[in-house]
Design a protein that fits this description.
four-stranded antiparallel beta sheet, mainly beta, about 0% helix
Length: about 120
């Protein structure tokens, strides 16, 4: 059974930092592109940052220069280091795993709340 378990969310003041973690189990982690999405009430989930199996990364323009996504294939974990947080970063952050070999296979975590407020 595949599981993606996020942690590290919380409340922080503007300018603060948080590190999100997503531990994957029940899957061959190295075969999956890992992505952090975020969602605010009434809006669709949007991509924040992604890291491919090759280690190539991509970021939403709104987080470039402030967020860093990394992956640890020994710990089967993907991280999102978030610096200089802004109120507009407030959202539920979801971990996503996607494999596109022969067919598309996708899994989601349960989400972790990030609140940036003074």
């Amino acid at each position: 059974q595949v599981q993606l378990v996020e942690s590290g969310g919380g409340s922080v003041q503007p300018g603060g930092s948080l590190r999100l973690s997503c531990v994957a189990s029940g899957m061959t982690f190295s075969l999956y592109t890992m992505t952090w999405y975020r969602q605010t009430p009434g809006n669709q989930r949007e991509l924040a940052a992604a890291i491919a199996t090759s280690g190539t990364t991509m970021y939403a323009d709104s987080v470039k220069g402030r967020f860093i996504i990394t992956r640890d294939s020994v710990k089967n974990t993907v991280y999102l280091q978030m610096e200089n947080l802004k109120p507009e970063d407030t959202a539920v952050y979801y971990c996503n795993a996607k494999k596109e070999i022969a067919s598309v296979v996708m899994y989601w975590g349960q989400g972790t709340q990030v609140t940036v407020s003074s």
